[in-house]
Amino acid sequence: MNALVPLPVLLPLCATGLSLAFGTRLKRFQRFISVAVLTAVLALSVALMIAADRGGPLSVHLGDFAPPLGITLVADRLSGLMLTVSSAVTLCVLVYSLGQGMSDRDGETPVAVFHPAYLILVAGVSCTFLAGDLVNLYVGFEIMLVASFVLLTLGGTGPRVRAGSTYVIISLFSSMVFLIAIATTYAATGTVNFAQLAGRLGELPLGVETLIHVTLLTVFAVKAAVFPLAAWLPDSYPTAPAPVTAVFAGLLTKVGVYCMLRTETLLFPGNRLGGVLLAAALASMVIGILGAVAQTDLKRVFSFTLISHIGYMVFGIGLATREAFGGAIVYVAHHITVQTTLFLVAGLIERRTGTTELTRVGGLAKAAPLLAVLFFVPAMNLAGIPPLSGFVGKLGLMRAGVADGGVLAWALVAGSALTSLLTLYVMAKVWNLAFWRAAPPGQAEDGTVLESYDASDDDPDSGPDRVAGTGDEGVRGHHPAGRVVAATLHGHAVTTTTRLPRTMTAATAAAVALGLAFTVLAGPLTSYGDRAAAELMARTPYVEEVLGR
């Protein structure tokens, strides 16, 4: 079974080469490769999760080089769960993107872009979850970020390039700080392997250990968009195409949360910075949700709720008890699915109405009842309405806070309740504006051009930013945004449509079903989270598996 550990990384990388080789000449085969590989990665992830749960952590030393020289990959209960949920989500988003036609513009470029970049992103995420040392964790980050730079700026529109520039600057800064942390760690301990660091960091002078701890925590807080290091997110994610925004918001921030969970338990036990984490969690919850309340664009609303609900996960990490870690693990799995689903729904709303600006949308409950259901279920799940999985995760975290009994813990319990209520208010606001009220005057008609192939995106009044050819309908040639035209198959203009593509709708429905599955399986999921938390706090199974003691 240990031989399966590298495959979630290797399969997408090999598929990337095949995808580049076929390019735009065999588009259907290229799509088949992507779907088949992500399906295989999902199956492997489930197998690794089950094996790690039954028999303990699995590890492999690539090239048979022992630590600290070799590359070590490790799958335990936490990484197995993260791999499984991320694989399921990325598969849903890939299918959604096929329905939206994300790769249609590849025919206009010398190299097929979308599928290779997406597969590299999946490989980077898998590498991050399986990394057994700081260097390969950094490599996983960089693989993931290189792909994200491409995906974030698909289409080369002005707003996307500007947003991508902000993302690049923040990412390069955090990468530089990460390299400094790795160099400091190696200079102080002579290794970067997690299992060896678990025994050596505690022997360092307190000042040196704290410096390494703070530096790593800062890097991961930037990746996770923890307040006050989250200002980059609301301006970077909403401009990207809907599938890209969905996978970024649902998954990439959780990579940072995963790294915080891993390092706070394995490398820095004792919770020395617990107070700082709790304060950051409370600020993220309250300021994030207040930002969501103030927004009128749906994608920005979801971006701010993302920042807010990251606070719940940091809440569990800051408490540093078994119950708190278990609640945080359950909430991470829940939030990956629900947040991704909401952004997919936002893409459907934009495709249906031509905008995500809530003041210009209405009447969707009557005009598109299936779309209303696809929004309502994950919205209530995010708000934590019983008995949905969001309620289960929040309840576990709040119980851990009450059990702790500290002043900050009680403040976080109150902040959690307030954030849940405000999240419900925000979701009700979106429902009332976009679905319940009558359609406002001037809402886009069927066949309205959102953006044509050569339309300039530097004009802020030129309509929503979309990649040309992102739908099954369109028209050839240049057409100004807002003009109603006859649609043709695989044309170059993006148009609204009253009949949403079935593939996009089915993929979104699958993501909703995955979120509901967490509700149905809340008991087993909670038990699994508790076992994963116990394994994280014990540390011994991980260390013995890697070092062979």
From TrEMBL:
Single GO MF descriptor: NADH dehydrogenase (ubiquinone) activity
One Gene Ontology biological process: ATP synthesis coupled electron transport
Signal peptide residue numbers: none
Keywords tagged on the record: Cell membrane, Membrane, Transmembrane, Transmembrane helix
Superkingdom as given in the UniProt entry: Bacteria
GO CC, alphabetical: plasma membrane
InterPro entries per UniProt: CPA3_Na-H_Antiporter_D, NADH_UbQ_OxRdtase, ND/Mrp_TM
Topology of this chain in the membrane: Multi-pass membrane protein
Protein family: Belongs to the CPA3 antiporters (TC 2.A.63) subunit D family.
Name of the featured protein: Multicomponent Na+:H+ antiporter subunit D
Organism this protein belongs to: Streptomyces fulvorobeus
